[in-house]
Design goal:
The complex is a heterodimer of chains A (300) and B (340). Chain A is an all-alpha fold and 300 residues long. Chain A has twelve helices and two strands, in the order αααααββααααααα. Chain A has a two-stranded antiparallel sheet. Chain B has one domain. In chain B, helix 7 runs antiparallel to helix 10. The chains are: A mainly alpha (300), B mainly alpha (340).
């Protein structure tokens, strides 16, 4: 524990800015992953344990697309769209067969899928660490804010994540399709009886949720090392975010993701060995005080 | 004394006799090693089934307690301060304490929430094991060997004594789990699984009951962990990794939940599968994942449940055929097997 370092950092503008920016990007990645997870749970009522593996898949797809084309924009599209497509296939051919069956079967299917994806990546890319490196477009001098330096890519990432979150929120709350999706979450029989193709919608929602995980993976690729199995830690963190923010609430996911991001960024200075512990303590606290999460509606 | 207890005791004695006799009949050391692994993972799968099958709590973090049992036992033995039985009891007690804290948070959560928070806590314990290098050896695992000083005239450095001791402990634990599942407490848990609201109306403290079985199951899993630590003379962070929990769930599913000893069947099947897969390929995950997908999507239930159902259906058909063939004067024959 090193409280002195934490106080020092908080009182110096440059260190605080650096840590805030780190917290922001960690939070934004978590927000993207969690909102996908939350969307799928909200509409389909299942927890997609493969979500972390989808994040990994997005990162590797972006890695390949960038190596082939040299364009980061294309890499992002490949990561997001590729994983979205994969999600649709996974929903149609695997997940949809275990709807309505006990959770054990759903868990097993996800467990099997993670094993296959992790091993598949290992076969294609090898087991060692891979680095994508910062795309040339972002090879700019860092932006100076109040004495602290923030890489340009960080700003870009935060902007993309915010835009994605905003589009998602508007899409669900302000469009006709979003209204149908919300109705689907509440009463699928009724939606089906009104002549709407629910099977297609389920696949679409699953695909959209997966796409968000893929996008997060693609955005993370330039700043993280890629390894098979890199999805597990972000999956666990997004579980924690879900519990803190409240299941099914996008705003809650946003708030909680930022909270966890800052906890990680500043915790790394104050309590380097206890960062994971801090997140769990935070989660336990929320569960005791407000079991439905900060912005959750019904009790968990 | 419960009527079934005598039968359970007899079955346990017979099982123990068989386990002791097996390595004598087939003296290859490989069989003994295989069986000790079977004891360790079997206890984990059986105890997990107390949560999944009996209580309806699908825990995805059960391997955490397997690992804490192994690490606590290994660390206590390496300190050289206590004899084996004391270290074992302390390891189980310590795990029970951890499970009490984690369980107190988790059992309040509904179904799928429970699954992922237990998984999250397991990964927390895994990350503690990996980061606390000074105590646990981090990634490398607990090395330097676990001493096995003789106690009560038993020298566990002798492979045969070690095997027999593990077999006795294993059978005792299975017997204990059987008693719990047949006790009024066990039947209360079944009621909670089938209808928690009703259990609540009947004055059952659902949370306390769930917490009770959570702690008991964790303690039993820790015994499995300490058997393994004792045998491999070390403990590794993989014990606490989420794939270990996944394997335990798969064992239960393979063995089926309709029979009390089903998870042991699953353990045996998965262990055999793992054994051959690791011989022929390094892509263990790919093969295992594919097998799971085929079984879950193809059979839609566990292998043992599949056989169980097939035999039941066959019996029913035969009974129906017999009834139809017999003079119809006694009873109207059912028209299809399902009504039998």
């Amino acid at each position: 524990m090193n409280l002195e370092a934490l106080v020092d950092c908080l009182s110096s503008a440059s260190c605080a800015v650096t840590q805030v920016s780190t917290g922001l990007i960690v939070g934004m990645l978590l927000f993207l992953v969690t909102s996908g997870l939350s969307l799928i749970f909200g509409v389909l009522g299942i927890i997609n344990f493969t979500h972390g593996a989808f994040y990994m898949l997005g990162a590797y797809l972006a890695f390949t697309a960038y190596a082939l084309s040299g364009s980061f924009l294309l890499a992002m599209v490949a990561g997001a769209a590729g994983v979205g497509l994969f999600g649709i296939l996974f929903e149609r051919f695997v997940m949809s067969r275990v709807y309505g069956r006990d959770i054990l079967m759903q868990l097993l299917v996800c467990y099997a899928m993670i094993l296959i994806l992790d091993d598949g990546v290992k076969i294609l890319y090898g087991g060692e660490y891979r680095m994508m490196g910062m795309p040339d477009v972002f090879a700019l001098p860092p932006v100076e804010i109040a004495g602290g330096f923030v890489p340009g890519y960080y700003l870009f990432m935060v902007a993309v994540a915010l835009a994605a979150g905003l589009v998602l929120w508007l899409g669900i709350n302000r469009t006709r399709l979003g209204k149908i999706v919300r109705a689907l979450a509440i009463n699928p029989q009724m939606v089906g009886a009104l002549g709407i193709n629910t099977t297609l919608l389920y696949a679409g929602v699953f695909g959209l949720g997966s796409l968000l995980a893929g996008l997060a993976g693609a955005l993370a690729a330039p700043i993280r090392t890629l390894t098979p199995g890199m999805g597990v830690s972000i999956l666990i963190e997004s579980f924690i975010v879900t519990v803190i923010g409240g299941m099914g609430s996008i705003a809650g996911a946003f708030l909680a993701a930022l909270l966890i991001g800052f906890t990680r960024a500043f915790g790394a200075i104050g309590f380097p060995l206890f960062v994971d512990g801090l997140m769990f303590a935070l989660m336990a606290l929320v569960l005791v005080v407000k079991p439905s999460g900060l912005l959750g509606r019904e009790a968990a | 004394m419960r009527a079934g207890l005598v039968r359970d005791l007899a079955a346990a004695l017979a099982g123990l006799g068989l386990l002791i006799a097996l390595p004598m009949l087939f003296p290859q050391p490989a069989l003994r090693d295989f069986l000790i692994y079977f004891f360790a993972y079997g206890l984990m799968a059986m105890s997990l089934n107390l949560l999944v099958g009996l209580t309806g709590l699908v825990s995805f973090g059960h391997a955490a307690y397997f690992a804490t049992g192994a690490y606590a036992f290994g660390l206590l033995m390496q300190s050289g301060l206590v004899p084996i039985p004391v270290a074992a009891l302390a390891a189980v007690g310590g795990t029970a304490l951890i499970a009490l804290v984690v369980g107190a948070i988790c059992v309040r959560l509904k179904e799928i929430y429970f699954s992922f928070i237990t998984l999250a806590f397991q990964m927390f314990i895994h990350s503690i094991i990996v980061t606390w290098v000074g105590l646990t050896g981090g990634d490398q695992g607990l090395r330097g060997g676990i001493p096995r000083p003789p106690f009560l005239g038993l020298d566990l450095n002798d492979a045969r004594v070690l095997y027999a001791t593990c077999a006795v402990v294993f059978v005792l634990c299975i017997l204990a789990m059987r008693q719990v599942s047949q006790s009024p407490f066990g039947y209360t848990l079944r009621m909670i699984r089938d209808n928690p609201a009703r259990a609540n109306f009947l004055g059952v403290d659902v949370t306390a009951m769930k917490l009770g079985i959570f702690v008991f199951a964790a303690s039993m899993a820790s015994v499995g962990g300490l058997i393994l630590a004792l045998f491999v003379s070390g403990a590794y962070p993989e014990f606490a990794f989420w794939t270990t929990s996944g394997e335990a769930i798969f064992m239960i599913m393979l063995g089926g939940m309709k029979l009390f000893l089903g998870p042991l069947v699953g353990t045996l099947l998965l262990q055999t599968l793992n054994h051959f897969v690791t011989i022929y390929t390094e892509h263990h995950g790919l093969v295992l994942g594919t097998v799971i997908l085929v079984i879950v999507l193809g059979l839609r239930r566990g292998l043992a449940d599949f056989l169980f159902d097939a035999i039941q259906a066959r019996r029913a058909r035969r009974a129906a055929a017999l009834a139809a063939a017999a003079p119809a004067a006694f009873a109207p024959a059912p028209l299809d097997g399902r009504t039998v």
